[in-house]
Design a protein that fits this description.
2 domains, DNA polymerase, domain 1, alpha/beta, Rossmann fold, about 325 residues, single chain, about 15% strand
Length: about 325
């Protein structure tokens, strides 16, 4: 499988430029996937290194004071799905971390990294997951009701559908799927599972009684379950806090979001610097957030959307650590 068929990065150029990459910086791509962003970061590091060499003065090139050359930069790429390993990069400046990005701080401690110059997160689900029927992410393919990003995790979507109470399912569909009829869908599912456990995607579609032509509603139902199975918002909260603490002054964080729940969380965090979204101000009314906003929700150009329709819902937010 090519890296492009695994996942096409949205707003790649805008994201890489927004990170203001330095040749000797330490960067983290917490959503490796097909490796498109990681490859672009490494290439930009190389380009910036060549550019820096070209603009060195002759005197600087002849230094004899014994100071060693600055170390090369490095990129750490996270992915909790072992399938992403098929897109591995052969580069001494690159390290792959098979882990959920919620453990960002732990892994940086493990590698002896105390500060980073930039972090990128593309929160979109890879083409690979939607287009790989046996993973159970899409209502368009008959498959086991799985949805685990980390295939070693124990809880599947089927476990949730068959064990949560009607009230818990209704709340889940409302909060994570923003389904107005979440309560009715939960009631339908509970009636169906009383007859037989719901173990496949097509069984869930039938049990929900959402008409096939209402594809957006079905997509939201599956989104809600996927978020719950993988605790996506909980992991995002932990990663954001770790990124804030790891970024050095002048370092940048770039995040691509794809639905309102995660975008609202990212937006409020980058504005305030905290998970509550509370704007703290000093005596003079100045915002005490540790971030300066660079991009406030940029969307893809029409040309890119025509080429990659899945980029339509992407929003890019970038902030710099003060």
């Amino acid at each position: 499988m090519s890296t492009e068929s695994y996942h096409i990065p949205a707003m790649l150029k805008e994201t890489i430029e927004g990170l203001a990459i330095k040749p000797n910086g330490v960067y983290v791509d917490v959503t490796f996937g097909g490796g498109g962003h990681s490859r672009a970061i490494l290439e930009r590091m190389k380009e910036e290194g060549r550019r820096t060499e070209r603009i060195k003065t002759e005197g600087e090139g002849k230094r004899t004071d014994g100071k060693r050359k600055e170390e090369e930069g490095h990129l750490y790429s996270f992915d909790q799905d072992k399938d992403a390993l098929q897109n591995a990069i052969e580069d001494d400046r690159w390290t792959f971390v098979l882990s959920n990005f919620r453990y960002l701080k732990n892994w940086m401690d493990y590698y002896g990294v105390t500060q980073i110059d930039g972090l990128l997160a593309d929160l979109g689900v890879s083409f690979h997951h939607f287009d790989c029927p046996e993973r159970g992410f899409s209502f368009r393919h008959p498959a086991p009701l799985d949805m685990r990003m980390n295939q070693t995790a124990k809880r599947t979507a089927a476990d949730i559908v068959n064990s949560y109470s009607e009230e818990e399912l209704a709340q889940l569909f409302w909060l994570y799927g923003e389904l107005k009829n979440g309560r009715g869908i939960a009631k339908n599912i509970c009636r169906a599972r009383a007859e037989k456990p719901i173990e496949r995607t097509e069984e869930l579609v039938a049990a929900s009684r959402i008409p096939a032509e209402m594809s957006k509603e079905l997509a939201r139902l599956f989104q809600a379950l996927r978020i719950e199975v993988n605790d996506e918002l909980g992991a995002l909260r932990e990663m954001l806090v770790a990124a804030r603490d790891l970024l050095r002054p002048g370092g940048r964080i770039a995040i691509l979001t794809y639905h309102s729940l995660e975008d609202r969380l990212v937006k409020n965090f980058l504005r305030s610097g905290n998970l509550e979204g509370t704007i703290e101000k000093d005596f003079y009314g100045n915002n005490l957030s540790p971030f300066t906003l660079i991009e406030k929700g940029r969307t893809a150009e029409e040309e890119e959307v025509a080429r990659n329709p899945r980029s339509r819902s992407a929003k890019l937010r970038i902030a710099e650590k003060r």
